[in-house]
Input
Amino acid sequence: MLLPRFSTLLCLAGLTAVPAVNAYDGDENVKSIPLRTHSLSAPYLDSDFQSRWFDFGGDTVIRADKYIRLTSDRPSQQGWIFSRVPLTATNWEIEFEFQIHGEGNLHGDGFAMWLTKQRATQGPVFGSTDNFEGLGIFFDTYKNNRPGTSFPYVMAMMGDGKTSYDQAHDGKANELAGCSARGLRTTSVPTKARLTYFQDKSLTLDLQYKSEGTWTNCFTLTSPETNIAIPSVAYLGFSAETGELSDNHDIISVKAQNLYNVAGSKGTGGSGPPRSADRPYRKPKKQSGSWSWFLFKVFFFFAAVRGGYDWMDRLPVQDKVFSVLDERVVDFCGLMRSGPMSESEMVKIKTLSVILYLLA
Output
């Protein structure tokens, strides 16, 4: 079923069952935890065509059993999806499957992946806003004016909120790193990208488009040699754009994971359980007998109340009550000192008297 054009739709994330903790490829000490809030999989939407995690807009079309189509193979289209909550993990990995395809030999313009402070704003940079603050990964399929570069071309740009994207030269003035990816469009294998980030350490982009299961490194950046400071609060998004030339730009799935180091070291894995650098982490000892002592005190309290209640039963109520309670307590109970008291009032007085007597 094709859903019509959406101005705002929410996407259903994390529908498939996933393990709570996974081993991270390449490092036994680094583990991963799935981030359902930033993941996407079919059917994308719930029965009400809504979800709490993503917004959709522009020319985005959703086919629940197949894809999220940011733009169709038609001229002058723009579409986007953005997470509703920011990605606040310090170390993470985002792997997504996509497909770029269309009819004819001429096609454009491409799509982008975003991790920015801004969200859900349509604009001229692959369907999203210019002068953004954060990271943009551009999958450019149309060559404007960049001699010596093969297209499609994949590049990263770190926006400062002031600098515009160099549209006329396919982002040459803004490029942080990039690679040519000939064969990325209309390939026979699932096309995927995997972006891995360790805060203040490294940023890596790998692509799968040559053969299934074979990943090709596009770039790896390290700090402090390169500015890879992604905002600590950034929204995950995807957008696409067509001009006079067009293509289908589809997002098939998105899988986001939080990465952490189980050893808790200062290596590339991030942080583990809180502990001192020179003292091993120890579990606090359980206090033995705490529950037994608590139950004993409860039993003793009620036994004392019961005994006191029976003892007071043998005394004149009026005389005993006012030797323990003052006028304020009586007023609080809604009782008067003069006049007869009902049986329920006597019970209230006697009970409060015993409690206050024991606490005195």
The longest strand covers residues 248-261. The chain has two domains: 22-261, 295-359.
